[in-house]
Amino acid sequence: MKLFSRVYGSGKDIIIIHGLFGMSDNWATFAKRLSQKFKVHCVDIRNHGNSPHSNFFDYDFISEDIINYINQNSIYKPHMLGHSLGGKIVMKLVLEKKNIFDKSIVIDIAPKEYDISFHQFLLEKISKLRLENYTSRNQIESDLLKSLKNKAITQFILKNLKRDNERFLWRFNLSVLKDNLKKISHANFCKGVSGIDIMFVKGENSDYIDSKDLNRIRNHFSNSKFCEISNAGHWVHAENPSDLYDEIISFL
Length: 252
Known about the structure:
The chain has 252 residues and is an alpha/beta fold.
């Protein structure tokens, strides 16, 4: 599978992998700033954004896609940056392919199994929208907001809405994400030990990483570093991009 990507700048390569329901465009603003010092590749993982859809969706397939992207673009020892689900992919890659990556960054995710009830709720509410019955984006936004009761999450999901020949469509592969959600909630991807230099970033207001996770991280990543970004929740790059940028530049 050939992944879609947005590439900015020149120099040492850094690959950014977004999270579930995300896409490369979510990282465009941050990537453009980072491109002052690096060649930044923002990829869309399979079944997301502008990348192809597939019936297969798990850690193994996503990781293989990233390796193929690296080979297709003749990239040598890139830095890796992954947010949420993308962070799990980065962990898996640097554990299994120790010698092909440089310093890497995992944002607001830990090597553990997560409760998927909220994501199941999201997928259920999204599935109930019959896009063929809508004639305007505002109508879809209004109904989704009534269901989710959260404006920020509604706006995030709606970034995936596109119009094609008078029809509204989701960029992500809704049915495949529903069918494979459990496959990307577990922590079976995290096996072995890596000595790679890796930084784990936590949003101050996020509960995705807690104190118990630090030992889990150290057990797998012997050269791990930790930092917390103030005034930020799970979407650290959107809520406090300046501090995140400073931490990344200092680390790399």
